[in-house]
Design brief:
This protein has 186 residues and is mainly alpha-helical. The protein has five helices and three strands. The protein has helices at 4-26, 39-52, 90-106, 111-141, 145-185, and strands spanning 57-64, 68-75, 78-83. Strands 1-2-3 form a three-stranded antiparallel β-sheet. Strand 1 and strand 2 form a beta hairpin.
Length: 186
């Protein structure tokens, strides 16, 4: 019990993720709809990125037996795949928020810079989620179904996890540079 404060961040993180997945699995009539709120927007931006590469895209809404309401990305008038909240990176946004909150809470960074770091990191995390959907679409369009499943189930997670791991290190580096700069001015 005396070490509980040391582990509180981990317990909090596990608790939030557990609550999200339990809510999503036990929600009556399908998936927990609020978790799907970012999905259409993420799908929209991934579709716009595909259009930059010359593909004709559209987003429709569909229903999946297991995943509930999903956004369906179609390319060249052919449905490509459905996008649920985990696939769209809502999970990585939650992980980012918890990790960066715990990191910034323990730091002695000025409040204004903490807010800036939080917002910039959230935007980049969201862009990474768009890039993940874009990458999945490009893999599927290449006809490599096995690569699609491997990327979807395993490698795609590295996009956001790498960013969430590296970003606090970048913040520490920036803060050290700012401190050195402040010392040389005085």
């Amino acid at each position: 019990i005396k070490d509980l404060p040391v582990l509180s961040g981990s317990i909090f993180f596990l608790g939030i993720m557990g609550i999200l997945f339990v809510l999503d699995d036990l929600y009556p009539g399908g998936k927990f709809v609020p978790l799907q709120i970012f999905v259409p927007v993420t799908a929209f931006f991934a579709a716009r990125a595909l259009e930059l590469f010359g593909y004709s895209t559209s987003i429709t809404e569909g229903s999946h037996l297991i995943y509930g309401r999903v956004s369906i990305l179609s390319v060249n008038n052919s449905p490509l795949f459905g996008i649920g909240w985990i696939c769209a990176g809502v999970e990585s946004l939650v992980i980012y928020i918890i990790v960066i909150f715990l990191f910034l809470k323990k730091s002695n960074i000025a409040t204004r810079r903490k807010l800036l770091y939080f917002v910039v990191g959230a935007v980049i995390t969201y862009l990474i989620n768009i890039m993940r959907i874009f990458t999945l679409a490009m893999i599927l369009l290449s006809g490599k179904m096995q690569f699609f499943h491997d990327f979807h189930n395993f490698y795609g997670q590295f996009y956001s996890i790498t960013w969430i791991t590296v970003y606090p290190i970048m913040i520490v580096g920036i803060e050290n540079l700012l401190k050195k700069r402040a010392k040389t001015k005085t």
